[in-house]
């Protein structure tokens, strides 16, 4: 038995159900029967029966006999007739009518004594419409398919968010939105793969356990391999391995993967999360923006049938049309100038990629912004988030980032001090990022060394020098564009849900 604590009422119900389980086992004619038979003779599903026979008139008989199974989510027992609602995994329901005339006194009495809410039962009988017009099975035979030892939550009372997360199986049983979330995510995953296939991308798998973490600025989870007697890291990003694939000649490659970052958890972050990364030889960050817009718009069509999606709060969000592409530095300066003008003050000094970090520190302090391990780039990005992000209402690509915060990114082809990188912002949060990839192994080594200095200074998110990756680059990587997008965040953008609702079984304490 489980060590899970129960309240007195639940413990009493469990004891009663355990006694019924013992009775079912004792009365079973063979080992395949009892409370948990190995199989039941199902011939149809509840959804398929509903689709075929929904048009029956009240009191009409179909003449078709089926074998169905489902979970009992409602029942009402009377003297000579018992009613139960059976629910399938997708939430479809059908009524089972167990009558004295059809099953006999002994079978009817066993139903009353043994069947509880939450049980899986098998019923065989004719499909009919009740006198009230409800699609039903007039039961001729029945059996327990799986005995439930614990009661279901009250269906008309909403589960708390904590209960939904910790006991997602109950959430799926009682709440249609939970089931719809799973279906929507599956549709999005299929859509992503379909869009990639349409552009001749190949899907691959890269290691989750790595001897060196890299591919993103993030704090890793650390574990130990007994077989190799070495410290290993859970993957924070697949980037460095996918680039190896491009070096090897897989010109268009993507992976839908699980990543792990040993960082804070909140409404938009989870320590374990899913993302998609893609790389295209002879592409750049502009082409990756085109691809990303197509991926997301196709995902919206898969979920909502339209580029305009309806969020859980009832509001609508439009993913249609061409999305804006704005400069990080230009939009930051415009926001600062607009605020000063509104206050009747003169325009502030323009922030450029050459503005010293010391000057940015003064501006950040005046804004009440604190930056850990400060650099020019970190100040600029924090100021941009503070002053600009709330003004973005439509999906927007924020282009051209500071060089020191993007060590894997190619320098901009015409603007000194920035790199060819964009972040995509949707509904106030970052959804995706892309680069024109840095493929020069000499410059990449310099960037890794600079990151290593930050790491030695205490920056847990800084990258280390990855000699194996540098060796791959030294064999020649073609000019390439790369993109990464969080799947959980994509679901948040399409549905309006929090991150824990988009993940089927999120990590909880």
UniProtKB/TrEMBL annotation:
<dbReference type="GO" id="GO:0005829">
    <property type="term" value="C:cytosol"/>
</dbReference>
<dbReference type="InterPro" id="IPR004364">
    <property type="entry name" value="Aa-tRNA-synt_II"/>
</dbReference>
<dbReference type="Pfam" id="PF01336">
    <property type="entry name" value="tRNA_anti-codon"/>
</dbReference>
<feature type="binding site">
    <location>
        <position position="423"/>
    </location>
    <ligand>
        <name>Mg(2+) 1</name>
    </ligand>
</feature>
<comment type="similarity">
    <text>Belongs to the class-II aminoacyl-tRNA synthetase family.</text>
</comment>
<dbReference type="GO" id="GO:0000287">
    <property type="term" value="F:magnesium ion binding"/>
</dbReference>
<feature type="domain" description="Aminoacyl-transfer RNA synthetases class-II family profile">
    <location>
        <begin position="198"/>
        <end position="506"/>
    </location>
</feature>
<feature type="binding site">
    <location>
        <position position="430"/>
    </location>
    <ligand>
        <name>Mg(2+) 2</name>
    </ligand>
</feature>
<dbReference type="GO" id="GO:0000049">
    <property type="term" value="F:tRNA binding"/>
</dbReference>
<dbReference type="GO" id="GO:0005524">
    <property type="term" value="F:ATP binding"/>
</dbReference>
<comment type="subunit">
    <text>Homodimer.</text>
</comment>
<keyword id="KW-0479">Metal-binding</keyword>
<feature type="binding site">
    <location>
        <position position="430"/>
    </location>
    <ligand>
        <name>Mg(2+) 1</name>
    </ligand>
</feature>
<dbReference type="InterPro" id="IPR012340">
    <property type="entry name" value="NA-bd_OB-fold"/>
</dbReference>
<keyword id="KW-0648">Protein biosynthesis</keyword>
<dbReference type="InterPro" id="IPR018149">
    <property type="entry name" value="Lys-tRNA-synth_II_C"/>
</dbReference>
<dbReference type="InterPro" id="IPR006195">
    <property type="entry name" value="aa-tRNA-synth_II"/>
</dbReference>
<protein>
    <recommendedName>
        <fullName>Lysine--tRNA ligase</fullName>
        <ecNumber>6.1.1.6</ecNumber>
    </recommendedName>
</protein>
<dbReference type="InterPro" id="IPR044136">
    <property type="entry name" value="Lys-tRNA-ligase_II_N"/>
</dbReference>
<dbReference type="InterPro" id="IPR045864">
    <property type="entry name" value="aa-tRNA-synth_II/BPL/LPL"/>
</dbReference>
<keyword id="KW-0547">Nucleotide-binding</keyword>
<keyword id="KW-0436">Ligase</keyword>
<keyword id="KW-0030">Aminoacyl-tRNA synthetase</keyword>
<keyword id="KW-0963">Cytoplasm</keyword>
<dbReference type="GO" id="GO:0004824">
    <property type="term" value="F:lysine-tRNA ligase activity"/>
</dbReference>
<dbReference type="GO" id="GO:0006430">
    <property type="term" value="P:lysyl-tRNA aminoacylation"/>
</dbReference>
<dbReference type="InterPro" id="IPR004365">
    <property type="entry name" value="NA-bd_OB_tRNA"/>
</dbReference>
<keyword id="KW-0067">ATP-binding</keyword>
<dbReference type="Pfam" id="PF00152">
    <property type="entry name" value="tRNA-synt_2"/>
</dbReference>
<dbReference type="InterPro" id="IPR002313">
    <property type="entry name" value="Lys-tRNA-ligase_II"/>
</dbReference>
<keyword id="KW-0460">Magnesium</keyword>
């Amino acid at each position: 038995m489980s060590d899970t604590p129960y309240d007195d009422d639940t413990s009493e119900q469990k004891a009663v159900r355990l006694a019924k389980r013992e009775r079912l086992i004792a009365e079973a004619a063979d080992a395949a029967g009892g409370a948990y038979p190995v199989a039941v003779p199902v011939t149809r599903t509840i959804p398929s029966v509903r689709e075929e026979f929904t048009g029956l008139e009240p009191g009409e008989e179909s003449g078709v006999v089926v074998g169905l199974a489902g979970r009992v989510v409602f029942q009402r027992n009377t003297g000579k007739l018992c009613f139960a609602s059976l629910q399938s995994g997708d939430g479809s329901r059908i009524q089972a009518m167990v009558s004295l005339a059809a099953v006999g006194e002994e079978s009817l009495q066993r139903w009353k004594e043994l069947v509880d809410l939450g049980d899986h039962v098998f019923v065989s009988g004719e499909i009919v419409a009740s006198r009230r017009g409800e699609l039903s099975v007039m039961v001729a035979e029945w059996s327990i398919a799986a005995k439930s030892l614990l009661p279901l939550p009250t269906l008309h009372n909403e589960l708390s968010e904590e209960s939904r997360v910790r006991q997602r199986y109950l959430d799926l049983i009682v709440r249609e939105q939970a089931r719809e979330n799973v279906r929507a995510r599956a549709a999005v995953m299929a859509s992503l793969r379909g869009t990639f296939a349409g552009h001749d991308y190949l899907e691959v798998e890269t290691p989750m356990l790595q001897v060196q973490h890299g591919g993103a600025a993030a704090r890793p989870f650390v574990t130990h391999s007994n077989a190799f007697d070495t410290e290993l890291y859970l993957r924070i990003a697949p980037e460095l391995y996918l680039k190896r694939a491009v070096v090897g000649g897989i010109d268009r490659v993507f992976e839908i993967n699980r990543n792990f970052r040993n960082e804070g958890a909140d409404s938009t972050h989870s320590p374990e999360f899913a993302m998609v990364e893609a790389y295209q030889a002879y592409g750049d960050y502009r082409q990756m923006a085109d691809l990303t817009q197509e991926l997301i718009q196709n995902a919206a069509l898969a979920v909502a049938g339209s580029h305009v999606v309806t969020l859980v709060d009832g509001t609508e969000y439009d993913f249609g049309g061409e999305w804006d592409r704005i400069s990080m530095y230009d939009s930051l300066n415009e926001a600062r100038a607009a605020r000063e003008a509104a206050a009747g003050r003169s325009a502030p000094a323009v922030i450029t990629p050459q503005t010293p970090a010391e000057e940015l520190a003064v501006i950040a302090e005046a804004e009440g912004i604190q930056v850990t391990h400060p650099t020019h780039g970190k100040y600029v990005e924090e100021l941009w988030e503070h002053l600009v992000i709330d003004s973005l209402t439509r999906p927007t690509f924020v282009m051209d980032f500071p060089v020191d915060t993007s060590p894997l990114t190619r320098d901009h082809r015409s603007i000194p001090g920035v790199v060819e990188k964009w972040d995509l912002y949707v509904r106030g949060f970052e959804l995706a990022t892309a680069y024109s990839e840095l493929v020069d192994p000499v410059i990449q080594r310099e960037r890794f060394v600079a990151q290593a200095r930050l790491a030695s200074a205490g920056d847990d998110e800084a990258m280390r020098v990855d000699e194996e990756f540098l060796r791959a680059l030294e064999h020649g990587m073609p000019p390439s564009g790369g993109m990464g997008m969080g799947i959980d965040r994509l679901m948040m953008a399409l549905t309006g849900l929090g991150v824990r609702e988009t993940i089927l079984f999120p990590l909880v304490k």
